[in-house]
# Entry
Amino acid sequence: MNFCSDNVTGVAPEIMQALVAANQGAAMPYGDDTLTQALSHKFQDIFGTNLTMFPVATGSAANALALSVLTPSYGAVYCHPSAHINVDECGAPELFTGGAKLVLVPGEEGKITPENLTQVLESAGAGVVHHVQPAVLSITQATEAGTIYQLEEIQALSKIAKTHNLYVHMDGARFANALVSLGCSPAAMTWQAGVDVLSFGATKNGAMAAEAVLFFNQKLSKTFPFHRKRGGHLFSKMRFLSAQLVAYLEDDLWLKNARHANQMATRLGQGLQGLPGVKILLSVEANEIFVEFAPAILQALQSAGFKFYIFDGKQLVRLVTAFNTLPSDVEKFIKVAIAAS
Amino acid sequence: MNFCSDNVTGVAPEIMQALVAANQGAAMPYGDDTLTQALSHKFQDIFGTNLTMFPVATGSAANALALSVLTPSYGAVYCHPSAHINVDECGAPELFTGGAKLVLVPGEEGKITPENLTQVLESAGAGVVHHVQPAVLSITQATEAGTIYQLEEIQALSKIAKTHNLYVHMDGARFANALVSLGCSPAAMTWQAGVDVLSFGATKNGAMAAEAVLFFNQKLSKTFPFHRKRGGHLFSKMRFLSAQLVAYLEDDLWLKNARHANQMATRLGQGLQGLPGVKILLSVEANEIFVEFAPAILQALQSAGFKFYIFDGKQLVRLVTAFNTLPSDVEKFIKVAIAAS
Amino acid sequence: MNFCSDNVTGVAPEIMQALVAANQGAAMPYGDDTLTQALSHKFQDIFGTNLTMFPVATGSAANALALSVLTPSYGAVYCHPSAHINVDECGAPELFTGGAKLVLVPGEEGKITPENLTQVLESAGAGVVHHVQPAVLSITQATEAGTIYQLEEIQALSKIAKTHNLYVHMDGARFANALVSLGCSPAAMTWQAGVDVLSFGATKNGAMAAEAVLFFNQKLSKTFPFHRKRGGHLFSKMRFLSAQLVAYLEDDLWLKNARHANQMATRLGQGLQGLPGVKILLSVEANEIFVEFAPAILQALQSAGFKFYIFDGKQLVRLVTAFNTLPSDVEKFIKVAIAAS
Amino acid sequence: MNFCSDNVTGVAPEIMQALVAANQGAAMPYGDDTLTQALSHKFQDIFGTNLTMFPVATGSAANALALSVLTPSYGAVYCHPSAHINVDECGAPELFTGGAKLVLVPGEEGKITPENLTQVLESAGAGVVHHVQPAVLSITQATEAGTIYQLEEIQALSKIAKTHNLYVHMDGARFANALVSLGCSPAAMTWQAGVDVLSFGATKNGAMAAEAVLFFNQKLSKTFPFHRKRGGHLFSKMRFLSAQLVAYLEDDLWLKNARHANQMATRLGQGLQGLPGVKILLSVEANEIFVEFAPAILQALQSAGFKFYIFDGKQLVRLVTAFNTLPSDVEKFIKVAIAAS
# Structure
């Protein structure tokens, strides 16, 4: 009954079991353990390429630490105004980069457009000492608006970025939701499309607290360990981060979880679509829906015990589904909305 | 058989059970959950005072975030040369404080002496614009040398610190080991002795990854939440940090674990004391022993499968015991040493 | 013949004389000299209030250091997209504030509108840990577009800022040009209108390299000296900064210089107004004009030896007049434009 | 009569004349002027090598900006405990490097010894993620103790530094005083001895406010312009910094000035040597003397109108001579001391 966020959920049972299983005997700390090694191989298999990976515990840490090695302190990071790094991390990127600037590139439905990116970069003043220097493009997949960049869109943005000597970072806090939505390979959505570094999310999709930073461009990863340690993000008992991620990737759990979350959102969207007093504002492509409800409907839903965030003190509601959202809760939600509309 | 560190251990069974138990239903994120509330009350009970507490996942995070609200960027943090914040955090305090300076105050057996502190502070140049400004005293309890500050020592250092308008921070990564060694109350070892902020450690003593920053001086805590978030250290599924700490404090698990670890170290010390070719270098007061072994003994121990860190490419060995160190391993260790000596 | 910027000019003769005169005997360093004391009194007289002032050498230093004491590292500074602090300081505010975020508030002709400011602040998320926290409003007077905020506009913006607990900073790199344009008192344009801290510019209006940060809200100034020193901006031979500023303020030199610069711009504007192939884009209110020239006119002006910056590889030209712009150069400029139009 | 510091002096007449002379017509800003170009050539001539140079206004700026491109934020800068960067810059290096750590290497008379440097570096933990990473050796020539590194000492330290992959920075706030003391070439004391980057001082030896950062290792200079701008240290009217430095180097003014200052110190040392109640504490090798005076002598000197800094509330006095110290003042000083001893 809680549609506030995918972070209100607990831990997927397979992952909790893996934590229990990992708790056998001693293991050398800081990643010098067999689970972390296994995880590294797992990621390489899944992405079909050599890569360097670093488990961390939060999405903000993954993003900010990734950016810390991609931009100098006098650099510019280009992102969408709604990007998590811009809105929801209380300045973590600025802290970890030593004060780099996030430069905003707008676009509909949470997505940067190639036209806007080109325009911003062409007037960025690369090489001119008065201006922060173009360094990174950061895109979010799935976006904060619950939408998905198509492969051609990622490729187009990466191409522009490379032309202007930018690195490309992808914030994949909801990477799995995007992947199953597109139905493509992890490789296609990342390094084959020009992504250098990925913040690979798991927490929102069933982990307890586990993400990973993946460097497809491995030379960029050299100084990352020092930034991670310096940020207080190197876990001594690392095996318990790695155990979560191994279990997450095992037997396609991550894809299964994401598919379920997306299906629940799709069903919610279908059920609410066209109801009087209900307006779906953005395409439903992953596991989020943004809806405007008439006051009566809103009240009915809250009275029925449903929880969700309401933005701007208005009727704008965000509904987020998750790996363990009950189909019966979704059906009940729709039923209440219909009754009140 | 692994005496490398208390961070090679797994998770205490009671804490693992608590994690499993916490995984029921949805919970609001970022600490707005019942377990986190319960933890706050628990800490207040145990320390016998009002306090504000913030769970985090690593000791470096606890220390660096605590310091981030105690010193301005142009401030000085006084600590022992061997302090974890000085040696083992790759500059985390400098990052989180915006570049404050750690000023080293020496002393035997890992402990700052009142004389040395006074001397350093009197020539610190408080108020003079050319110099970094005295801001914080940070002491480590138990110390990195495995020794313990007596209550009078903490009180004396705090008094000097207060006289010079410093805040007092305690790095308590091994807080429980120190507490049971002194046999005093948590209050006596902290706020009653002048400590303003405590990094309360649990990871080394049986948690998976959980520490807490405790503000006895509550007004200092106001901006902490922003620093924690900005550092990427605010966990969305906070209940799983809090669950660890609640279980850690429940039924005196933390004290029981620490007592066991200390006893194992004491027994090791007793067993090795006076053996030819064995030199115990520092007082054994908590769960660490620093020993010089003759080469033959060192080799015998390694051949028998014991693991430990050897410093300086020499015979200096650090042995760390933990909540789950087997008495039989300790006895075997002693036996091998005796046989080789 | 050089209209590129008011920083291509040399030093006003009165100021150069003052430097020569200041070079007598020894003087205690770092501001402990009689000229710096005299300057402080001078500023208090001119602004008709108690204030604390700090000479520095560059406008970027003045702005960034002012901001360093007005916002925490997790704070937000609201400014116009064209603000010097946002565009032309290569991230100096981010460096000196420890990574605060500049949040952009748009408006026509280089000016933030009260409506836009209100809207941005109302969705800023004050008190919410995920978001950077509203801290400062920074306005530029005269603006980067060569326009002037009217007193009522400053008052209105300050009022909104105060309502949201923001401090108000004014970037007055061209303060004198704005002041003579409005014809009001320095007090009216600053502290009486709600400004807490002013970056008072002199370099562009005849000094060699001298600005001052003025705190009307004196309690905010307490930690400034440490930030200035730490930034490498505390001059040992401070008397030579102060000498420039004393001479600048003496006998209304600053107002005389600014009046001349503004008159030259006004004359340029009048002379170009309405010519075919000439389009004046923004109101001419201080000492800058933004003009679009037809290619033939542009070429004629350049052939005649006039220098100016052309933006965007197009025909958009910025003309800046200064304290020593020759009326004959202005007339010649107009003449060449007329001949080519 | 003022022996407090070489920064209590005014400006050498040749340099003041050069400032007046530079004030002709317009000049493009930010270093795009003929004087700055001339200065670059001048430095290359004098140092006999290709180099990249950047004028700045203060010594702290020169040092901190130099370090900003020599170390990552997780780096260690090795310096003497008495180094200006450690003691007298209020944390400027920490600010500009993003929080690098100054690691102290002791030695007699203000000089790092090769033995101590080797020892510190061998236990520095290069490559180990828990520790800050060795990055820079910074030596001060002349030292803060008024002593001079011999060429072989610089070479030996540089060799150790290079062996450990450190860059070598020289703080040359009193570079000229050291140079004339050694009687060697600028090349011999810098790049030929392994120095990569030099903070070249002029302010203490007759300039108004002018220093330069010289990169002998030119590839290190690439990002320096952005750091300088971002630090608020890029002067718009750069020609007035360059004019000072050109005049300083012209006709060996810098060497002449330094020779005079050193001679005055030597004479003071000779005159005071052996007097009862006078103890000269450190070798007098440049333009500073550290003396302990008996109370009666101290009082006599102060009564006679001499000014100097007294350290530690004791009788420890620092006397600094300068380019314009009057020989008659020196003789009078000696006379008063003799009379009171």
The CA atoms of residues 188 and 238 of chain B lie 29 Å apart. Chain B touches chain D at residues 73-74, 87-91, 94-95, 97-102, 104, 123, 129-132, 312 (CB under 8 Å). The two ends of chain B are 20 Å apart (CA to CA).
